[in-house]
Specification:
The chain has about 325 residues and is an alpha/beta fold. It contains 11 helices and 12 strands. It folds into 2 domains: about 180 residues, Isopropylmalate Dehydrogenase (3-Layer(aba) Sandwich); about 140 residues, Isopropylmalate Dehydrogenase. It starts with a strand and ends with a helix. InterPro entries: PdxA (IPR037510), PdxA_fam (IPR005255). Its EC number is 1.1.1.262. Pathway: Cofactor biosynthesis; pyridoxine 5'-phosphate biosynthesis; pyridoxine 5'-phosphate from D-erythrose 4-phosphate: step 4/5.
């Protein structure tokens, strides 16, 4: 089988086009860029790189391909233009629809600029939620992975003040079910071991520092454990990531964005990969932003995109 991987560069003014130009499809893989050809050609010229991709028409042969979608206006490296926000979403929708129809085996995404999309008057909270809506409003679970550590999130792009209301027994149960299921079925882990963080300091200190653990987190863990899932928690977040205990853990479930992501980015920022669980197709992504100040300079590091592509191919072959 030749894996067919769709790749979207993301924000055209950011480093996404630079990174895509520095990615060669691995042997035996069809890599389909979904982007504006003129942007890639102009950026390649500025960086002194070559660019040659065949037009995509559904070939099942290894190589580099391009499905052309034009921007509204020419993109300038490092300068946002909200007129191109619809283009960014069009590339994502085209790639996702291709995955849903079986045209592509997986989707790898470059970084988008949420602010520019919102400034264009388009409600957008992130790739994760956008792709979930295109997939029929499934519940998506964000997980970042690097060698030796996987961190999933019970909530994603929420203001911190809204997080406690979102941590319900029902929601946490569904998130853990999705995390457990994808670790088993996509990552090939027969009996996933999941560590669940507490929400409050010291995991609530028996209710003295908050009752979310008592009223929502502990009941969800007990019920799922009774079904045979291997869960630990709620564990105080300040000790959840100790190296020795992580040896007995396949994934840590953090309850909000900045509880888990700083840990994995500190551990291995260059090689961390964002994986969206719960979708009906495989989606991986870089773990960094658009880095406008690096666009067109040649200094952008493609390591995270390399890692995202390699993981997408690995998961495709396991599938």
């Amino acid at each position: 089988m030749i894996p067919v991987i769709a790749l979207t560069p993301g924000e055209p003014a950011g480093i996404g086009p630079d990174l895509c130009l520095r990615i060669a499809p691995p042997s035996g893989v069809a890599l389909v860029l979904i982007a504006d050809r003129s942007i890639l050609e102009a950026r390649a010229k500025a960086l002194g790189l070559g660019f040659a991709a065949r037009a995509w028409n559904g070939q099942k042969a290894a190589g580099l391909y391009l499905h052309h979608i034009p921007t509204a206006r020419p993109a300038v490296a490092g300068t946002l233009d909200r007129a191109n926000a619809p283009y960014v979403l069009e590339t994502l929708e085209r790639a996702a629809q291709g995955c849903l129809k079986g045209e592509f085996d997986a989707l790898v995404t470059g970084p988008v600029h949420k602010g520019s999309i919102n400034d264009a008057g388009i409600a957008f909270t992130g790739h994760t939620e956008f792709l979930a809506a295109l997939s029929g409003n499934v519940l998506p679970v964000m997980m970042l992975a690097c060698p030796g550590l996987r961190v999933a999130l019970a909530t994603t792009h929420l203001p911190l003040a809204e997080v406690p209301r979102a941590i319900t027994r029902e929601h946490l149960t569904r998130v853990i079910e999705i995390l457990h299921g994808d670790l088993k079925n996509r990552f090939g882990i027969a009996e996933p071991r999941i560590r669940v963080c507490g929400l409050n300091p010291h995991a609530g200190e028996g209710g003295h520092l908050g009752r979310e653990e008592i009223e929502a987190i502990e009941p969800a863990i007990r019920a799922l454990s009774a079904r045979g899932l291997k869960l630990e928690g709620p564990v105080p977040a300040d000790t959840a990531f100790l190296p020795e205990s992580l040896k007995r853990t396949d994934a840590v479930l953090a309850l909000y964005h900045d509880q888990g992501l700083p840990v994995i980015k500190h551990r291995d920022f260059a090689h961390a990969v964002n994986v969206t669980l719960g979708l009906p197709f495989i989606r991986t992504s870089v773990d960094h932003g658009t880095a406008l100040e690096l666009a067109g300079t040649g200094r952008a590091d493609p390591s995270s995109l390399h890692a995202a592509l390699e993981l997408a191919i690995e998961l495709t072959r396991k599938k």
